[in-house]
Structures are given as structure tokens and as C-alpha cells.
Amino acid sequence: MTKEKLPFDEIGYWSEIKLEIIRKYAAAYSRILSSQHRTRFEHVYIDGFAGSGKHLSKTSGRIVAGSPMVALQVEPPFKHHYFIDIESRRVRQLEEIAGQRADVDLFRGDCNHVLLEQVFPRVRYKEFKRGLCLLDPYGLHLDWEVIQEAGRARSIEIFLNFPVADMNRNVLWRNPERVSPDQVKRMTRYWGDESWRGIAYTSEPGLFGDMEEKADADVIVEAFRGRLQHVAGFKHVPSPIPMRNNQGAIVYYLYFASQNQTGAKIATDIFRKYRDRGSP
What we know:
It is globular and about 60 Å long. Helix 1 runs antiparallel to helix 10. It has helices at about 15-35, 65-70, 90-100, 110-120, 145-155, 165-170, 180-190, 195-200, 215-230, 260-275; strands at about 10, 40-45, 55, 65, 80-85, 105-110, 130-135, 155-160, 200-205, 210-215, 240-245, 250-255. The mean pLDDT is about 90. It starts with 8 loop residues before the first strand and ends in a 6-residue tail after the last helix. The protein is an alpha/beta fold. Helices cover about 40% and strands about 25% of the residues. Strands 6-5-2-7-8-12-11 form a seven-stranded mixed beta sheet, sandwiched between helices. A three-stranded mixed beta sheet has the order 1-3-4. The protein is built from ten helices and twelve strands.
């Protein structure tokens, strides 16, 4: 008899830190926008890779609230919540968590399409709509077009997972010629164009001709921060926070990007509290 698969996933220590960051920022964001009496903003929460709403902590063995539950517990509450996941079993679990709440819309599908076609159009700047969007893919499963559209909208702030572990494992090899075309395509899709090649690799003269040298991770991370500012058009992009596993290795970087200086300051202060947090 096979063991039934749990409707929620196991998460590591770094993911629990990420959830603490989201919880603290979402509470500050909702409090500030709810207090604006002169201009009646309608602020919403958007989760592109929502998961099942609950997780099993690898560290403690306990069930912990995932990002959808974190958002639903924020006080004062968001005006609306949009949760997206590609897996049916996760959406069913989200349905149970949301219950009869009228302030929740659930979507089963690829967030690269759902966000652009059904969610972002509901968060228009001129209609005084504002959104906090979590883009936390499991790897290179996000299209640059989504990031760029969030920047163009001017109404959406994002927390973004920059999956360096996936990049290093599958794309950013010391010998780029050995990387499969499919993996290259995934990287280009996330980055937005092929400019990552010139950043990740530089030609250095060697004994037998020019050799490709792989850039340090810091160079790639800073270059992507520049893309968020100068290509996607976010005015404020603080230095991202590295998210580390139990052994201290960096799994991904968490970016925050916004048009709002106050939001960037709050996010920077929160990042500072967790930036040097080691393993549990």
C-alpha cells in the first residue's frame, strides 16, 4: 500500500525566513495603504506560485502557514487576494483554506499567462489600485515579461525569487558549450534576453587562445538588479538578500522591487534584520 502524498510540501529553513519577511512587509504595506484617507487605495495581494497554503517544516516537523495563509491573516486585511498555482491538488487545498471568503480568487494554471491576462489588468494605477505580488518560482519557471509588466504597471510591488541554485546546476557551467539548448532557453526566458551570456562569461587570454571565465555570483546578481531598475522600470530595488540552506549555501536571492521609496526603505530594514542569519 503506497503512502498518500501530502497536499503540502516540505520547506527548508530559508523558506521559513522568507515567510517571516513577507509577513512583516505585508503587514506594514497593508497598514500604510489602509490609513490613506485622502486617496482611497484598494490594495491587493498576488501570489504567482501560491502552493497549497501550508507547508511542513523540515527544521521543526510542524505545519507552518504558507504565503497565502500569511496574506490572509494580515491585519488590516488586503482588499482582495489572488492565488495562482499550476497543480490541481494545491488549488484544492487553497479552496479549503479560503472557505467562503469573498475576497479570494483562485486560479489553476501557469502564472505567466494568468498574471498577464487576468490579474495584473485588475490592478490599474489610474484606478487607485495597488498590489503586492510574490513571485517565488521553484526554479527558472518565470517569464521576464511578467516582471517587466509589473514594473510598467507602476501599481505593483514585487518580491522575487532569483534561483541561483537552479542556474548554477543547469546553466552557468564553467564550460558553457556543454549546456543543453533547453536549459539556455530557460535562462533566457527568465532573464528576458541573452545579455546574461556576456555578464556570466568573459573572455580571458590563455596559453592556447582566449578562454571563457565564469563571473562570480555577485556580478550576476547585481546585473539582474540593474535590469529590474533600468529595463523593467522599478525605481527602487534594494540589494537582494541571500537565502541560505542549513549548510549556509545560497539557494536563491530574494529581491524587492517597487516604485515607492517608503516601501523600499521598509523592505531594506527587514532585509537587514535577516541578512546575516545563519543556519538554524
